[in-house]
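Escalation from tier 1.

The customer reports that the assembly of two entities below gives different structure tokens on two consecutive runs. Tier 1 could not reproduce it. I'm attaching the input and our single run for tier 2 to review.
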Amino acid sequence: MTHSLHRRGSAESLQNDYVILATPAVGFNQEGSKEKLLKMLDIIYELGPTNIGSYECGTIYSGATFEQIKEKLSGVPRVRCSFADKAKVREFVRRVKELDMGLSITISGLIDEVEDMARELEIRPHSVNLSLNIWGKTGDLPSEEALEFLTMCGHGMVSRHLVERLIGQVKAGKRTPRQAAILVAQPCVCGIYNVERAEKLFQKYVPA
Amino acid sequence: MILIDQEKCTGCGDCLAYCSVGAIKVKNRKAGVDPHRCTDCYVCVRNKACPQDAMTPSSLEAFIDEFCHVISDPTVTTAETGVPGRGTEESKTNDVTGRVKKGEVGFAIDMGRPGVGCYLRDVEKVARAVCAAGLKLEPGHVSPIGKLMTNLETGEFLPGIGDKYFLSIIIEGKTPTSNMGGVIQALQRVEKEIDTVFSLGLVLRVDEEGRSAAIAELPKYGLPVPTRGKVNVGLGRPLVTD
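Tier 1 run:
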């Protein structure tokens, strides 16, 4: 479960950055899971995610509508989305627990906060996946400023060049942080790119 | 690889921003793709990076080129594992599959990531190092990288593919908790020998309180206790309890 794991940034900027992954296990409980995931999509939509998408048609920021995301859910269905509000994540998990759908749910975020949420909901976490930083020839990495943006796409679809170009455009006053946030999120196909967080990160570059 | 119609290309350079591995260059006012660098992720095509619509994917003939495309393009489902994204569920479904059980530590070594990319020769170097340290790799029907190996016990790769460049690929395996330090130390040695980066993830089963004793061991190896992670909240059924 690494694809939303290695997000970088200060604790403050990661505070309201949650990813939810609902995943039927191939060969275990995938059969018949599509209807359950459609129900989860409805719950997510009602709560208001900062992004949502699907491998089949992209995200709400790359041109897909919520209806298309539902219609094109495949025979290997997955739900991926991001939230910028802990209360919404908590409510999603509460409702999914109540419906007892039996599908694996993972929440990516600050561990203490996710664990607090689990305690409040009387849920016992099963496993944890920890990010232990970047190793190897780290001198080749993009700048830490660029990493804050590009690690929000766990499939590596966002390039450092796009981030640098957009930061330059925001600095020059040619784009607003919101416009830049939408553009930087578009290459992400699954919907875990947190556009609200990206917008806040771009705010740093607005000329005084 | 991606082909650029030289008649249509105006050399504007807009496409450069969409390539995560820097495979596109503009020379003499025409864009071109380095065939040895392109990973066939198709980000440029999907995002209509070319205002002249000059970019198209070429057909992929060789096994390794097709494999690279499937791993790099998350919209494609990996045939062997039946999983989209990067072809592996890793431990997203650990509560149901039980890939990592109590008393074990799972390692997910995300080669080339973030934003660098990697040659398979470096991936093999890391795979061999962790195998020698006792990491048991996941088989190819669970983790796609296994399809590139001739020996899962040693981490040996198929011959002749070391120069293939990937956007990223995950080495996945597990070891008894008692050997976690051995694998970490092997990674601390081999990280100095590779020409790329990797992001390291650990997968741990937790107790009823959401804790794992292995976390407290990390500072022994110079590693900070992480504040960010992914929690499998245990709502999958049937639930694996061991």
